Amino acid sequence: MSSKRCYLCGGKLVEGRCQDCGLDNARSERKTYRLNYSRTENRIKGRGEVKDTCDFDNRDEEVMKRAAKKSKDKPERKAYQTNDSGPSAQRTAHPDEYKYSYTKPVMKPRTGKSTAISKKQGKTFFVIIIIAFLLIAFIGDFSKDKFNDVETGSIQVTEEPGSSDPYEFVSRELSDTGEHFENVLEPGLYIGGIHVPEGRYDIYLEEGQGEACVDDYENSIYLWQFFGDEESNGDLKEWNDVRIYEGAVLEVSGDVRLLIVTENGQTSDMKGMSNPLKDEVALTQGRKLTAGEDFPAGVYDFQAVSDWTTISYSIPLNTNYEDPELNYLNKSKWLACDAINTVFRNVVLPEGSTVCADDGDARMIPSKLIESEDYDSYYDAYRY
Question: Counting CB atoms within 10 angstroms of each CB, which of 146, 218, 246, 355 has the fewest?
Fold first, then answer.
């Protein structure tokens, strides 16, 4: 910390009195304060007033001489440079005089690339837009050629050309004349021209819920419909215009009975023969039986004996696929003793077929009517 100096000669002060010239600095110093003045301004102002108010005439002559001699003999102070951070300041020997200097920082030129789009880029962008518009126009024209517009009231509907008619590939049309025929069908397999006459049918839900499907390999017809009471879920109680040709198979499955009705049934063309088999075959739970070894090949009705069971059966197709499973047609039917689906009718089992009651005892009862005793030909449609 710097000590105070005599304002007259700059000498060292002890208890306010200069050791060199003897001047009483404390008695003569006058302090002045003013609002918004800095400490430096107050200090300079105060010292100026002291210089102006000092009464040199009343001073001791000897004291004045010593002060003058001291001031003359004292070497002049050299200016020194401070290295404080921030703007550099040069300070002189006199504590009240300051010189300031400031160096303006040099701004670096920008090095970023310009984002302006060149003429070449603009042309490329314009060409891309034109190509996009041409592509959209081409797709629109193609869509008009691909789809036909059909107006239904105030709603515009688009449909693909061609028909979704399931009877598009039939080899012939059904006769418009025939006889009335109706029958209630339980779960089972029914052949057109054997169990039901050829004709155009309406099928109605009699009771329960289940499904019906038509599989006609010769006429490329495959139809499927679920029957039930919950119409909100898409269930139907009536299925119209179901065409059954000779040789087509109508399968009914599930816990359901269906009523089939036709007005052009070709009853006079029905074929078939009585089943030559008369003996029932018992199916013990978990025991696999083979047709031609454990029981005679033929056409059987599966029937549950225990509360419920699943009957699995496998038909050899006599094909030569590398995957052994492709050489067999594997199916299963679930039966319950006290339900509509206690029976599944007209299952054809050629020689080599295996049958097993998986979950409970069951039995096989010979069906009443069969197509022929050539049981193996029934599965020719699955051999390809």
Answer: 146
